[in-house]
Design brief:
Structural Genomics Hypothetical 15.5 Kd Protein In mrcA-pckA Intergenic Region, Chain A, 6 helices, 229 residues, nine-stranded mixed β-sheet, four-stranded antiparallel β-sheet, Alpha-Beta Plaits, 15 strands
Length: 229
């Protein structure tokens, strides 16, 4: 792995930022100062320090976050800040497993493992996502059977979705796809409006109830295996 890429992956800024650190002779590999940002190292064996601080390299990252509203799932903050700003050590190789809209809260998985992401978002295992939905007016139960059969959206028929009533204006909606604004558009079909939306479950993985909004933690090996085993 290139030295500048290694540093960027471990929270030392962009590739441009890491090149500046290297030019300032602050980076050493196996106790030797390296001035070439393209230097090839072995992350598993080589000892890398920045200004005397040893980098403890972790190859694969698997995070569960309780995403707050007002943040976007993007590396680039435009109208809203990025959820990555909530992570203590920024890594440039992180990406999101199923994005959430800026005004949506709840379970967000962040990783740098493409195989893990593929198993959830693009695999053939039909991973379902469950959302807590607060509605503007009481949910009309006549739409439950329609959702279960599959409603039209974007010139196609959605996979069956299930509804669990919490009270008149709150439901748990479980869907198989992740189309643009899908839950909100499904509720439009049901002649209603979403006023609050929170993802609470992906497959058999539930949002950790101990995570406050904006907090995150590493997935356990058992949780990772829910999707990869």
């Amino acid at each position: 792995m290139r030295l500048d890429k290694f540093l960027a992956h471990n929270g030392y800024g962009t590739r441009k930022d890491t090149k500046t650190l290297i030019k300032k002779k602050l980076v050493s590999v196996n106790d030797n100062i390296v001035s070439d940002s393209g230097y090839i190292l072995n992350p598993d064996n080589d000892r890398v320090t920045v200004d005397g601080e040893l980098i403890e390299y972790v190859e694969n990252v698997y995070l569960m976050m309780n995403k707050p509203a007002g943040y976007i799932c993007s590396h680039d903050a435009v109208e809203y800040p990025s959820v990555l700003e909530l992570i203590d050590t920024y890594r440039s190789d992180l990406f999101f497993v199923g994005r959430l809209d800026a005004d949506t809260e709840g379970l967000l998985l962040i990783t740098n493992d493409g195989h893990f992401s593929h198993a959830i978002a693009h695999g053939k295992r039909n991973i379902h996502k469950q959302y807590l939905v607060h509605l503007e007016k009481p949910f009309d139960k006549r739409f439950i059977s329609e959702l279960l059969e599959g409603i039209p959206l974007d010139d196609t028929i959605l996979k069956p979705a299930t509804v669990e009533m919490i009270d008149d204006n709150k439901i748990l909606l479980t869907i198989a796809e992740g189309k643009y604004h899908q839950v909100k558009r499904m509720m439009h079909h049901c002649e209603n409006e979403v006023i609050y939306l929170k993802r609470v479950k992906i497959g058999s993985l539930n949002l950790d109830p101990s995570l406050k909004l904006g907090a995150y933690r590493d997935l356990t090996e058992e949780e990772i295996n829910l999707f990869t085993a």
